[in-house]
Amino acid sequence: MNADAADATPAAVPHAEAPGTGRLVLLTTSHRVAPGLLSWPAWETLRTADRVLCADPDHPQLPYLHEAGIAVEIATPTARELVDDVVPGDRTAVVLTSADGESALTDGLARLAGSGRETMPDLELLPGSYDLPGARLLDLVQVMDQIRTACPWSSIRTHRDLAKYGIEEAYELVEAIEEGDREALREELGDVLLQVVFHARIAQDDPDEPFSVDDVAGTIVEKLLHRHPHVFGTETAETPEDVKAHWLRTKAEEKQRDSVTEGVPLAQPGLALTAKLASRARTAGLTVPLPTGPGIGYELLALAVRAESEGTDPEAALRAAARAYRDAVLAAEGSAG
Fold first, then answer.
1. Span 45-65, average pLDDT
2. Distance between CA atoms of residues 15 and 249, nearest Å
């Protein structure tokens, strides 16, 4: 190509980049996590945003954002207003969502995007904090507190009023376990947990010796830590027998009991009571002659002690036999019918 031809070639025109479409971020937070504890992407987005908006003037995150120097507008913009603000351009708007979400805003954005006639910003849902394992327990405590305050029946219950329900729920839990019903097991575990939280909430109202569910949890945590020195301490345990020995030793140190029978509830069913007493005596190395007397009670006593010594739960064994008996009754009723 000669110089004249080169001079005649049109000059290349730089390609003009299309304007940006902006970014709209819906920032969610968990009420089960202390406010101010946000993820790094959340803080980074908040610090670099052109606008940060929140519809709730009492949002728990606001004091912490203010402390961090982040200006927040208390406003409830429509989807149309937000889209027009960030498109076109490279602007970023962050909406700090409330605990109930922003359904009107998200529905409006979905309608605009679905029309196919709008230039939409980049839409992003950014979790600012995540629930930790066990976080739903906080919901249970909160719900129980509301019920205790507002429900005419629950607000006047006492520990004694609820005692029978604790027994009933425990038996229903055992039945779900023995039946192998996973759905029922999940439900019954919840019912037993409710009893714990309900009693703890009642205890919180005691004028003389109040305690809360946190005190209950703290007590059992301390107990577990102390009774598992092979997990949280320097001792070792290679077998389940070693673990049991640790447990019994630390329990004896804690309780300082004068008799192995102390702490055995006498109100429990007879077979379970007998098995527990027999287990305590055997663990302590005591040789105890069985009392004898007239009537079937002493015969059942001997059977329960024998079952415990053979590693069988006599109460569970009798329940299994009783279920077989129930099935036989049903079969007999069917034949008679």
1. 95
2. 81
